[in-house]
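Objective 1b. Sequence-to-structure analysis of ABC transporter permease subunit.
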Amino acid sequence: MKKKKWYNNQLFPWVLPVLIIVLWELFGRLNLITSTMLPTPWEVIQAGWRLFETGELQEHVFISTERALIGFVIGGVIGFALGLFNGTILFLERLVDTTIQMVRTIPHLALIPLVILWFGIGESAKIFLVAVGVMFPIYINTFNGIKNVDRKLIEMGKIYGLSKWKLFTNIILPGAMPSILVGIRYALGVTWISLIVAETIGADAGIGYMATTAREFMQMDVVVLTIVLYAILGKLSDFIAKVFEQRLLKWNPAYNNKE
């Protein structure tokens, strides 16, 4: 039995973040960093507690999470479906893929003026921006994952008489799953980046709205709090994606390393 390496301890990845926070607090207490430039972690925690007591924090976090989830689901389903069909049907690949690749090169946040004209500054505009940002990473990784499935395995499945459905569910989809999950993890990061920008455009609620309002009143502790909230939500999203990776890819040695 192999001995577990010391750096595989679950607490080890938190060493660097904790060290940064300790140094940040220390520099603030020694007045090497002023509160007007960067509030200390303790001041940020106090600001968060004040907002929590009034209920504002929970409300804004819930609204932002809801927008992110709806946009992610819409964009993810569209991206996955396009990647799936283009990856398995040659006719559709020839017809659609080139167009998608051209559109993909346009920064989706550059569409903001058009989005405002199309949807106004309501919820639809914010969800649309998130969905567009999410769609392309999932599409690319789904499409490439399917295209890179070992052709020998597919041929073997055909020789054993597997139907098209069983060929897809037993060979193609599992073979493409690592790439698809990478796309999902990347798309989750894009989700929060898109939302940060979307919520600064005419929003009346959400974490981005908190940041904009705090900036106008020079409340630096709240501004930093909003950044920390986005970081926590992004990390939580990535953690959930990693859990799915470990569960869906148990058969893959690269995702089942017990060392």
